[in-house]
Amino acid sequence: MSRKYVFILILFVVLSSLLYIKFNSGEVQAANGYSVHNIDTNAEYTNGSISTPIGGIWYAWVNISKTQIIYYSLFSDELNSPIMNFLGQHFQVENDTEVFVGNTLTLIEVYNDTNEDGIPQANFTSGETEIAYYLLVNSSIGYEATPIQKILEGEIPHYTWGFKYYTIDGFLLYPEEQPGQGAARVMIDHIDFNYDFYVVENVSYIKTSFDIGRITEIQPIWSETPVSLDGLSLSLLFSTITISAKPYTAYVNGEPYNSTMATNPATATSSGEIAVEIIKAYEFLFGETYNLTRGESVKTHEVKSEAAATTSVPQGAQSRLNWMLAYFEDNLNISDLFPAASGIGGKVNLDCNVSALLYRICYPVWDGLMIQHDPTYVAYLFSNTVIPKFPSGGRTSRFPFSFFLILPLFMITTLLAMIAYRRLLKKGNASV
Questions:
Q1: CB contact set of 422 (below 8 Å; sequence gap of 6+)
Q2: Are both 52 and 169 inside the same structural domain?
Q3: What pairing do the DSSP bridges indicate for beta strands 67-75 and 85-93?
Q4: How far is CA 335 from CA 26, 379, 419, in A?
Q5: Is residue 10 part of a domain?
Q6: Do 239 and 159 fall into the same domain?
Q7: What angle do CA 325, 329, 333 make, to 5 degrees?
Q8: Domain check: are 409 and 394 in the same one?
Q9: pLDDT tens profile 151-178
Q10: 3-class DSSP state of 235
């Protein structure tokens, strides 16, 4: 076997490795939407609006310390404003590795905590569920944007903004049924989202505030039987998206996790993490308590949270989600928003069915009353911190199918190269 043949084998091994890295660059699609021309991505902070066929997207933007925040909320001045928002962050970990993490409030759900574990158990493949309804927040009579502003607290700049929908028209829909089949029409006083972004050394924080108003009116749709929310609980289902120039893994309770492959529909947790290779990049902190307003009394209760399997998502809501999220996807092009980013690009896919980490924030005591809660999102900028516990058995980390095609080729070609090289050495020694 010639030296040239050995060189070709070794070259194939290297190219196979590069091919795997290319295929595992993130959940990105080709950019079919239009570019985001409205946002001044060079600005330190700004806000404004982007036109859409149903009205617009109100955005907030922050660009400091080599990290950028993008926030979107749908609105309309012609129709009652649809209710949907998105929060994303671009940053780098060690060796200038580019990362983008996005977070979407996908559904609001009402559940009956029959097993009293505080979280909804649901598997719509098997038909077993504690989710009684999902709350279709169809439209709002009005909206109010709080412009982004920079506030100094000590020597640390904080960037704050918010978006509020008020007098909201919604429906309690059955999770197993197709859209339009539900129990009641409801009115919600308001839903208010507020954000506080700041950086301390090499760690950034986004402190969020969810203020969900009380249900002010319930009207049964198909019968005269009253619909009551007494004793029922509320959950917020979030879908995440991670795009990285290198392979990444979601972690729950210190173990690798993937919603698309999880066999347990609900895994109780208080946080979630994203690691790029084995470097800690991002953390979701769901908080410990929330406030519930009952009349003039405000009481504090323990918040619960779970990592959720894809099979636990009510499929009846899928068509509406696809329609609403498409407006964000058309304006979430990584190459446009972060032109200096290398190794990532294209249009972001917000389909919750491909999300590696779905999670629910749960409020066991609700009864249709007002809730206020403050979870936090943490990004580790230029991080080189290793996740303490790395995969140990079971394919729970998120590797693409290409990995399992290329890995055997990698091993075989490496072995052939070693055998060929040894034979070449023997042949050379024999000729001496």
A1: none
A2: yes
A3: antiparallel
A4: 14, 21, 45
A5: yes
A6: yes
A7: 160
A8: no
A9: 999 999 999 999 999 999 999 998 876 6
A10: strand
